[in-house]
Each structure stands twice: as structure tokens, then as C-alpha cells.
Specification:
2,3-Dihydroxybiphenyl 1,2-Dioxygenase, domain 1, 20% helix, four-stranded mixed beta sheet, alpha+beta, 2 helices, single chain
Length: 127
């Protein structure tokens, strides 16, 4: 068994698509649009076969994303090695994204940094 895909609502669909294509080399399918509801989505495919669906619709609420809340806490992206974590962390910071932790080795042995990515969604960059 495996997770087929995860889905997340975003305000800026094209901005989220660009974020993942730019920093995580995803490939996007064609835009799906339901004109009745205004729903729009893309499936973004990662090189290992994992997929993320990004979705938007005009009536979606954009509530504050407190760190300690129920629901999706973060995405964890495995980059393969420490240098890749360090390099992408620096690149994201240079492009205006906030690093809120790391890079560091955690108490349970992960080497990671934690950034606030598109629309302040938390993303872990790990080996």
C-alpha cells in the first residue's frame, strides 16, 4: 500500500505550481477547471512517482496556519544529502522564504531545515 497523492488548497494556484516546479522539479499535468464551481487543480508529479494535487476555488477560506494545529503539519522533502539541504535552504532564503529552523541534526537523527514555503505552508527539507 502507498499514498497515491496528497492534496492542498491554495489561494494562488499558478504561484504554488511555479514554487514546486522551481524548487522541487515537479511536472504538472494540464489544468483541470470546473466552470460551475470555479474549482481548478493541477497534479504535480515528483521524480519518484509521488504526486501532490494543488487546488483552488473562489470560496476557499485562507485561515491562519498556526504551527501547533490539527491537520496537515508539513511536507517533508527528501533531497538525498546534507549539501542539497543546505543549498536549497540558502536558495529559498535568498528568494525570500523564511527558514524557521536549521539546517541541523534533530534529536531523532534527521538532518533537516524547516522553511515556510508558498502561502506559509511548512516544508521540511531533509536528507
Amino acid at each position: 500500500m502507498k499514498i497515491e497523492h496528497l492534496a492542498i488548497y491554495v489561494k494562488d494556484l499558478e504561484g504554488a505550481r511555479n514554487f514546486f516546479e522551481t524548487y522541487f522539479q515537479t511536472q504538472s499535468n494540464q489544468l483541470y477547471h470546473n466552470p460551475k464551481t470555479g474549482f481548478r487543480s493541477y497534479f504535480l508529479s515528483f521524480t519518484d512517482g509521488a504526486r501532490l494535487e494543488i487546488m483552488s476555488r473562489p470560496d476557499t477560506l485562507d485561515l491562519a496556519k498556526a504551527a501547533n494545529r490539527t491537520g496537515l503539519a508539513h511536507f517533508a522533502m527528501s533531497l538525498g544529502n546534507r549539501k542539497a539541504v543546505d543549498d536549497l535552504t540558502k536558495r529559498l532564503e535568498a528568494d525570500g522564504y523564511k527558514c524557521i529552523n536549521g539546517p541541523r541534526t534533530t534529536g531523532d537523527g534527521y538532518y533537516e531545515s524547516v522553511i515556510l514555503g508558498f502561502e506559509d505552508n511548512t516544508i521540511e527539507l531533509t536528507v
